[in-house]
Amino acid sequence: MNNNDDASVTPRKNKKAALWRARYMNAPFDRINRDVEIMGGKACIKGTRVTVGMIVTQISDGKTPEDILRDYPYLSSEDISEALRYAAWSVESRETEIQTA
Q: What φ, ψ does residue 38 adopt, rounded to 5°?
């Protein structure tokens, strides 16, 4: 059962989900592109072959946004911010509740 089934979600989780949708689901991701012809359809920064996953991996490995901008001078800080927002949205939208026995 997933969080999209309103009957399985508590009122508190419904409120949290509604806040999340209002903030992120309707938010445009103007800098992110998914095209099957580019990187196999992975989410990329528009006009580049830099994937959202690459940015998230570099951040998780301890690189700062400034380090990434130095390594990829054609990116902007807004590209990195939107990639991180997109990654958070992507993970949150797939979260499922685990039922215990």
A: -120, 115
